[in-house]
Amino acid sequence: MAASCSSCAYELGWRTINYEKGRKSTRRYAKEARSLLIRNGKFYVAPRQTEENFKQLFARLAAAGAGRPTDNEGFADGSWTPETLADAISAIDGNRDGVELRSVQVWFQDNENGISDPNLRWLARIFGCGDPEATSAWQTELKAAKERLASQRRQKRMSQTDGSAVSHDVLSPPALSQTANEVALGDHADTARARSRRNRKTLAVRCESLLSGATSLNLQIAYWMLFSGLGLMNYVLGTLSVTYSPQEGLDKQVGFIWAPTLTLLPLVVLPTLIFFISNLNTYWRRVGRSKCISNDAMSINSRSNAAWYARVNDFSFSFWAIVLFSFLFVFGFQWAGIYLPAYLSGDANGVQIDRYLVTLERPEVISTPQAMILSAVGYMYTASYIAIFMLGLLFSLIITLDYEDICTTSDLESAEIDRPRLRGEGQKVVWAVFRVVVFALWLALLVKLQITYLQSDSKDFVTWIRTDAAAALGASVLPNGWLKNSSISHFTTFMMMAVTVTIFIVCVMKMNGIFTRLALYDNDYPFSRDKIAITSMFLVILLLSVNLVLVGRLPGFSLMLAASAIASAYVLAGPKLRTV
């Protein structure tokens, strides 16, 4: 018995010794294995050459903390977050531009966006822990994963296209309780309802159609006919050229042909403004928007522009507000609130005497009922071009926001994105918006010139401009004086200028933000080229705005007017932003 117990004790002791040796050996081997996972003081995960796409591979490595510093035990000190990974990539020697946090956040998101080649190289250096051999291996692995993601994305798009192209002639079997005729009638009714919904155009879509394509030419023709009709009415009523005496020795001209708002505005500025608005709308809807969304898509079919019409309909309130403001306030308030009381009382009450109120001073030329009809038609015309003015600015803003939305929702760093094309379309939008804004300011400037002339003591518009220029150049002439009258249009023209300049600043800021992001991914693109052109645009806008404010208030405004005309001619020829 004693011998047996001794033998058991001996065997138990031997096993205990072997177990302790095994534990020490296992710890030593584990420590050595962990040392193989550490390179340059960072946790290294070797490539496994799996079939994972980029999103799957990146999610696994980010969760494992590949490339992160190690703790005392040799483990990664945590998982990657978008912020820590962006900081690590930006801290790499030689990476002067860094990486956008938004781009890194896209890698972490569950979407189909890939990664640009420059950022792929920086990411390979992170996962390779700065070791050249490991970095090369990870660059190969990440490149293959990126190509798998792109291939899966293409296959998915092709399957969706094939699925949507299935013939509608192949119908599923109807329910047993339905006859074939009932199914056909139901389908016909659904199709009719869908067609009816498509055919119903909202006010926003109607305005877009009015100011784009061939319809804008119809609008131009309508304005020419209205201008001709107004001219004919003034000819018949004898107000093409008519004067009145606001003070002794002064016969002031207030006739139709002497008003810049009824000559230069409908003959030059308004047609040009409509042309540029139409140009912008038509190009963006038919070509520009499709180019920004797809490399080879180009749609001129209205049914294929559902996204664009949805964008326009998002601003339905703004379209209604513009139309109601133009015809309730510009026409209704000014005609019914200012002109109609003057006609009924026979006293202008300090309001400027123009071709419509000249009946109060010269009833033998035009009677009050005739002047009431003429002024009503004239102010309807004024309300319509004010609506065109505001609609042009609204479309400029809508297209800018649409471009910004397309770019911010696109993976700008993806190799599949044609960044030069995106930038080129954006530059075309900036240029088109600039043209619209310049001629919108000219419209406001002509209105301001008209009301300021009516407030002066000059006998006609040409003499007023010539006298100001001569006084500014030092000629011995009496400067222009002022009459005791007023006009609400001084305030409205200032508001028109403020709104126009604000819209332009907002559009340029939005576009400049996108251009800045695009320039980050194209190191060979000289971004200063855009800044120089945009600065030139701001200088032209500043000149026109200062001119509008100082009309008649500063001697020599006519010289600034000439400079504004030269700058506008410069607008027609340049500075056009290059698109390549």
Offer a quick outline of the entry:
The protein is mostly helical and 580 residues long. The protein contains 18 helices and 4 strands. The model is unreliable at 1-10, 24-35, 164-199 and 295-303 (pLDDT under 50).
Shape: elongated
Content-based structural category = mainly alpha
How much helicity do the residues have? 55-70%
Query: DSSP helix count?
Result: 18
Average pLDDT number: 79
* Low-pLDDT residue spans: 1-10, 24-35, 164-199, 295-303
Q: Could you state the order of secondary-structure elements as H and E? A: HEEHHHHHHHHEEHHHHHHHHH
The fraction of residues in strands falls at: under 5%
Largest sheet, strands/sense/barrel:
2 strands, antiparallel
- Beta-strand segment tally: 4
Strand arrangement, major sheet: 1-2
State the end-to-end distance.
100 Å
Rounded Rg: 37 Å
Describe this structure in words.
The chain is mainly α and 580 residues long. The protein is built from 18 helices and 4 strands. The strands form 2 sheets. A two-stranded antiparallel sheet has the order 1-2. A two-stranded antiparallel sheet has the order 3-4. A hairpin with a 2-residue loop joins strand 1 and strand 2. Helix 2 crosses helix 6, helix 5 packs across helix 6 and helix 16 runs antiparallel to helix 17. The termini are far apart.
